[in-house]
Design a protein that fits this description.
Distance between the termini of chain B: 55 Å
Largest interface: A-B, 59 and 67 residues
Radius of gyration of chain B: 27 Å
CATH class of the largest domain in chain B: Alpha Beta
CATH architecture of the largest domain in chain B: 2-Layer Sandwich
CATH architecture of the largest domain in chain A: Roll
CATH superfamily of the largest domain in chain A: Beta-grasp domain
Radius of gyration of chain A: 15 Å
Strand order of the largest sheet of chain A: 2-1-5-3-4
Order of helices and strands of chain A: EEHEEEHHHH
Shape of chain A: globular
CATH class of the largest domain in chain A: Alpha Beta
CATH superfamily of the largest domain in chain B: Aldehyde oxidase/xanthine dehydrogenase, molybdopterin binding domain
CATH topology of the largest domain in chain B: Aldehyde Oxidoreductase, domain 4
Oligomer: heterodimer
Strand content of chain A: 5-15%
Number of domains of chain A: 2
């Protein structure tokens, strides 16, 4: 029996310990904001947080999340500064990859309050957007950093 | 906040029609589909409430507008209701969008060809304006005044003379009882009064749901009691199962059983490829079970397909005369003067490989077959194709197939083909319960309807002033029509995609098309044949400019020539388009000039390894010019510091969304130009996932992209696709400027730059 938390809620799992967290979240927990894109950790659509760090849930087996605290897009504070910036910059086109992009950006901004373009490249290049919204993603991350700073000083 | 109720989860979905029949609701049920659209369809039903429920207004004032086109990221689902809301004079914050199921009563519903706004702009205006007239009439009757004394402001009818006003919801019930006015009695707003059309403030209806993870894509659709399926398809097109062994697969926890799916009978169209489906409790178990299947396949004539040798065949064909698709003057007479003083002959060959769509959401669908009827939920660009395909495959009537449309996690043309929805329906019939079919990324890349591989041959005779006096162009590629007709080898229907409409001022010109066989499924991909056609034409134009030692922008403007309407010899739909959308070189020149100016063309010093290139192409009736700046580093790696695009798409609905489309098109263009290549070995696709079919990531993407929209009152044209074609030639022309190396083959990674 694997015990862990998803968005603050205690969960247990006694199925196939090789099952990737992604499919647990989507098919078992019915938290579908986390997306399937490649199954190999190549595209970032499935990004969630494990103990605060951005991970690829498609290549993280359930046996690896024992005792972990998992946060998905459904579990971040509502209208997080990153989501607010995403809306203001009007980043999405189809939107499918954007929850993964947002989770990646949230993790980046937690550790780096004011990332440079270079920092953003390093943090975000594992997340593919086929619609090609990278310029707006970069802009939105800078914007979110400002929102976050303003919030911090408020 | 607006809730995304229309792309709701299947389980909880409330029918729109059902809700609309509650008393007091205004339902605009008039038929507005133009006659020609009906002509191709079955005789429409005469029942008053059956056809075309475009909008309703509830007593609380909530306006519900039907979106009959799919949302795959281009903004159609927002743009069309926004047009209705503008003419209705509705308050957009009180508008809900109801996604239409597939039904010919909405007319054509294939969200492709960059024509959702173009083909529906007038219709949507008429829908909104008609309802507005009816609301005014109802309020005027209530006040006992003449309708012409009344006006509207968002969500209210006003009678200024008596300072009275009634909310739309308050008069909806009365308006619903009125006869629908004739078109000539329905005035449209003048442009100056548009509240939403063309405004910077427009944003996607689904924006908030997308960023919070609430948006429902096909991958997220569920049905009660459904099981999951993953399908092992034949590796080579047309192969069938000889034997298979599922013993190991059945031992995987969560796997319930396996089932076979019959292979299509040629032509393949959108039918299932056939194969073995693993049915399981969840997606992962189905994927895992599949890995343990042992399947023997028979042989297929397409097992001969090897990309390297096929390329030689295409190129050999491109050197032979082909079918003439446009002829002006006599190129041969000029070419015969080869060797004479003042006649310089320049020839070049270009090649572009297959591409895969690789939408971030792989093909997926859920369907239930019950008592001869199918209900499906799918991320489809074309819900009527879902109806038709399932009807053929299961031998039922298409009216007995209900296709609900979710949001699409990208489409790019792949999701016009509903083979995976048909798979779900077939499996559901065999199992007697709803089935969700999920394709892996490997399935998606192996079994795409590929963008075609193409070889092009170009030849010009150039006068001493550097301008061509003759231009011959020949293109050879397996046509999309091979998907519908196994004997198709010529791309007749595709010549309008950048081949029979060269906008250059050249007295002798001939465009040809040579035959090619297909060995994989061929399909539309964002901007289609324009991609390789623009690559060849605009690379060649730049080669001529360089040969004449001219500035590329000046030379391109010279080639386009003076402002005029280009005479084209077109048939069918293309001829119809040309009436309303003549090929106007003044508009093409203008985008070239704007792109050049915004990029600082010729005004910024380009250091070592840096350069700029330009290309200008009209596609989907939109004029686009793109300047790309590159920096080629000492390892030969290409960086893209800047892209400047100018767009004349006529009247635009949501400018910021259009900039987003063109920013995205530059990235999409960079993916195909830098990395995009699908190859086959013995009929099997060599690539499988993002490690060997690379897409542009943020660190390789253009660092700065500007899209400038030309203000225009011309009829609306396409915006989803036309940004893609000019990108690759602008990039490779920039590479030439930076390195003096001419790239005649895509992707760029094939050419050593240092």
């Amino acid at each position: 029996m694997i015990r862990f938390k998803v968005n603050g809620k205690e969960r247990t799992f006694d199925g196939d310990p090789d099952m990737p967290l992604l499919w647990y979240l989507r098919d078992v927990a019915e938290l579908t904001g986390t997306k399937f894109g490649c199954g190999m950790g190549l595209c970032g659509a499935c990004t969630v947080h494990q103990n605060g760090a951005a991970i690829r849930s498609c290549s993280t087996a359930m046996k690896e999340v024992s005792g972990a605290n998992i946060i998905t897009i459904e579990g971040i504070e509502p209208m997080h500064p990153v989501q607010k910036a995403w809306m203001e910059i009007r980043v999405p086109q189809c939107g499918y990859c954007q929850t993964g992009q947002i989770m990646q950006a949230v993790a980046l901004l937690k550790n780096n309050k004011n990332p440079s373009d270079q920092d953003i490249d390093v943090a975000m290049s594992g997340n593919i957007c086929r619609c090609g919204t990278y310029q707006r993603i970069r802009q939105a991350i800078h914007q979110a950093a400002k929102y976050q700073a303003a919030k911090g000083t408020a | 906040m607006k809730r995304n109720e229309n792309v709701s989860r299947p389980v909880s979905r409330r029918g729109f029609l059902h809700g609309a029949l509650v008393s007091g609701v205004f339902v605009l049920s008039a038929r507005f589909i133009p006659e020609p659209l009906w002509a191709a369809e079955d005789e429409p039903s005469a029942a008053p409430f059956e056809p075309n429920l475009w909008l309703s207004i509830a007593p609380d004032g909530t306006v519900t507008i039907v979106a009959h086109r799919s949302e795959m990221g281009c903004g159609s689902r927002t743009a069309l209701p926004l047009i209705v809301a503008d003419e209705l004079d509705a308050d957009w914050s009180r508008v809900k969008i109801e996604q239409a199921v597939g039904d010919p009563k909405y007319g054509e519903q294939d969200t492709d060809g960059s024509h959702s706004v173009r083909s529906n702009f007038d219709l949507m205006r008429q829908v909104g304006a008609t309802a507005r007239v009816m609301l005014i009439s109802a309020a005027a009757a209530e006040w006992n005044v003449a309708p012409k004394e009344c006006t509207t402001e968002p969500h209210f009818v006003l009678h200024r003379a008596s300072a009275r006003r009634l909310g739309y919801g308050e008069v909806a019930a009365a308006a619903a009882k009125l006869a629908v006015p004739k078109k000539e009695d329905v005035p449209l707003k003048p442009r100056s009064e548009w509240r939403y059309i063309g405004k910077e403030t427009n944003s996607l209806f689904d924006l908030s749901d997308i960023v919070t993870g609430k948006a429902v894509f096909g991958m997220d659709a569920t049905m009660p009691g459904m099981v999951y399926a993953s399908i092992e398809h034949p590796p080579v097109l047309g192969q069938k199962i000889t034997t298979y062994d599922d013993k190991a697969a059945l031992k995987v926890p969560g796997v319930q059983r396996t089932l076979t799916i019959e292979a299509f009978k040629p032509p393949h169209q959108f039918q299932p490829l056939g194969g073995v489906a693993v049915i399981a409790d969840n997606t992962w178990a189905a994927f895992k079970g599949r890995k343990s299947l042992k399947i023997e396949w028979d042989t297929s004539p397409h097992a001969v397909y090897n990309s390297a040798s096929f390329r030689k065949t295409l190129e050999a064909t491109s050197r032979q005369p082909g079918k003439v698709v446009r002829n002006v003057g006599d190129v041969d007479a000029v070419f015969r003067k080869s060797g004479e003083p003042g006649v310089k002959i320049i020839e070049a060959e270009y090649y572009a490989p297959h591409l895969a769509h690789a939408s971030m959401e792989p093909p997926v669908a859920v369907a239930e077959y019950r008592e001869g009827k199918v209900v499906a939920w799918a991320p489809t660009q074309n819900p009527q194709a879902v109806q038709e395909t399932i009807a053929v495959v299961l031998g039922i009537k298409k009216e007995d197939v209900t296709c609900h449309v979710t949001l699409l996690g990208g489409g790019f043309g792949r999701k016009s083909k509903p083979d995976q929805v048909a798979e779900a329906a077939v499996l559901s019939k065999k199992l007697g319960k709803p089935v969700k079919v999920v394709w892996s990324r490997e399935d998606d890349i192996h079994f795409d309807f590929f963008h075609s591989v193409a070889a092009m041959y170009l030849k010009a005779a150039v006068a001493p002033d550097g301008k061509p006096t003759a231009w011959l162009q020949r293109t050879v590629y397996p046509p999309i029509n091979s998907t519908f007709d196994v004997t198709a080898t010529y791309a007749d229907d595709e010549m309008g995609l950048g081949w029979n409409n060269l906008p250059f001022d050249i007295p002798n010109h001939r465009a040809e098309n040579g035959p090619a066989d297909y060995h994989v499924r061929i399909g539309w991909l964002r901007s289609v044949a324009n991609i390789y056609h623009a690559f060849a034409i605009h690379s060649f134009a730049d080669e001529l400019a360089q040969s004449a030692n001219k500035d590329s922008v000046e030379y391109l403007l010279d080639l386009i020539g003076p402002p005029r309407i280009v005479a084209l010899d077109l048939k069918g739909d293309e001829a119809e388009d040309a009436k309303n959308y003549p090929l106007d070189t003044a508009r093409l020149r203008r985008v070239v000039e704007i792109a050049a100016e915004k990029s600082g063309w010729g005004k910024r010093p380009m250091g070592k390894g840096r350069g700029m290139g330009i290309a200008a192409h009209r596609a989907f009736l939109t004029y686009v010019a793109t300047v790309v700046e590159v920096e080629v580093d000492s390892q030969g790696q290409v960086h893209i510091p800047g892209v400047w695009t100018a767009v004349d798409a006529g009247t635009v609905v949501s400018p910021d969304n259009i900039r987003n489309q063109f920013e995205g098109a530059a990235v999409f263009g960079s993916s195909l130009a830098l990395f995009g290549e699908i190859t086959a070995s013995n009929g099997v696709i060599d690539q499988s996932n993002f490690h060997n079919y690379q897409l542009t990531r943020m660190n390789r993407a253009p660092r700065h992209i500007e899209a400038h929209i030309v203000q225009s009152e011309a009829p609306p044209a396409g915006v989803g696709e036309p940004g893609v074609p000019p990108f690759a030639p602008a990039l490779t022309n920039a590479v030439f400027a930076a390195t003096r190396k001419r790239v005649r083959e895509l992707p760029l990674s094939k050419t050593k730059l240092v």
